[in-house]
Design brief:
five-stranded antiparallel beta sheet, mainly beta, 16 strands, 3 domains, OB fold (Dihydrolipoamide Acetyltransferase, E2P)
Length: 187
């Protein structure tokens, strides 16, 4: 158990008997009213965004989550298999738990898996991944000054919007949180 003073981004709490991760918490003191914490959180099972208001000093049930590095091996149907880098144990994880991050995962990629006891809670990719473009429209000369974007398919099958000057077989850095193009990477 903890209080509202212990709220931090990334902390996992139990809200309505379901696990939720804190995305944002803000302490507010409106005029002559009592102080409260406005909390934005994401339900880890359904992925829904939730908001709740806690009175200042209210007790909250925090859940201990252990994170460990794993390596993505392969997927079979809607189950993805990960290997512990130290013990070489394989862990099957449902693709619904992995969520949108699955479209940027390629084999042998390092990820972080969060466990609550033995249950997999989340699978986190690094903030940035480097992938090769397999298909896009060709870039034309003089298309470097505008801010226009075009769709490109990367090696994992995901579609990313890229600037017009990016061509097939270019290697790019992608922000996995927003699925946005960041920059071209030299090989």
């Amino acid at each position: 158990m903890g209080t509202t003073a212990d709220l931090r981004n990334g902390a996992v709490i139990k809200y309505n008997n379901e696990l939720c991760v804190i995305l944002e918490s803000e302490h507010r003191t409106p005029g002559n009213l009592r102080a409260f914490y406005q909390v934005k959180m994401r339900n880890l099972k359904s992925g829904k965004l939730l908001e709740n208001r806690y009175r200042s000093g209210e007790t909250i049930e925090f859940v201990r989550v252990e994170k460990k590095n794993y390596q993505y091996l392969y997927s079979e149907g809607d189950v993805m298999y990960f290997m512990d880098n130290e013990t070489y144990d394989q862990v099957p994880v449902s693709s619904t738990i992995v969520g949108d991050a699955a479209k940027f995962m390629k084999e042998n990629q390092e990820v972080q898996i969060a466990f609550n006891d033995t249950e997999v809670v989340t699978v986190d990719l690094p903030e940035h991944v480097i992938l090769r473009i397999t298909q896009t429209d060709p870039g034309l000369k003089g298309n470097t000054a505008t801010n226009a974007l075009k769709p490109a398919i990367v090696e994992t099958g995901a579609t990313v919007m890229v600037p017009l000057f990016v061509n097939e077989n270019d290697v790019i850095r992608i922000d996995t949180r927003s699925a946005a193009y960041m920059e071209r990477v030299k090989e």
